[in-house]
Amino acid sequence: MRSITVLLADDHPIVREGFRKLLDTETDIAVVGEAQTGRQAVAMATKLLPDVVMMDIAMPLLNGLEATRQIRKACPLTKVLMLSAHSDPAYVEEAIEAGASGFLFKQSSATGLSRAIRDIHKGSLIFAPTIVRRILAERSSGRPVPPKKKSVGLTSRETEVLQLIAESKANKEVAVELGIGIKTVEKHREHLMLKIGVHDTAGLTRYAIASGIIECQPTTPAR
User: How far apart are CA 215 and CA 105, in angstroms?
Assistant: First the structure.
């Protein structure tokens, strides 16, 4: 029987190693690659075409949610299982919107993780029970789930540029990372400030944090 191929995407080597060791014990699951940035995950998924990508939300250079959108667009047969330490319903809602087939905590047991991969591969949607209960509680209370996502007017490329800026990358570094010209980066920065309604990099960074594009504020944001 053909093994279910899995790509691990997490920026922490120790976490990837732990997941690999867990999955290596399964005879029907094969880890075919490891990515340490969201951008690398997209590139590897496009090349390897794994059955399932295990994706962390907080990924450098390109966050896990945006990476999931790009993977689902480039590889529609590849399923994405989102992993996070956070259970915020807003993150879960956006993970679903991005095309993820599941959302589990990183602390999931080996048995639960393997089962989730198998079920997702078969076409099921898998979410941690505590996440489901929290979302149902939010909805039954009549209070809307607060949005924690990018502006409707932000394009995928603008989101990429915004994350790199918020990660303290200078214009030249952003240009190299995205393979575009510095003037193009400057134009994206200007458009971002106009759309978001801020006037400096600090404002862009605050917006990126509030939108869930990055999780924590860099110590020395570039200006």
Answer: 16
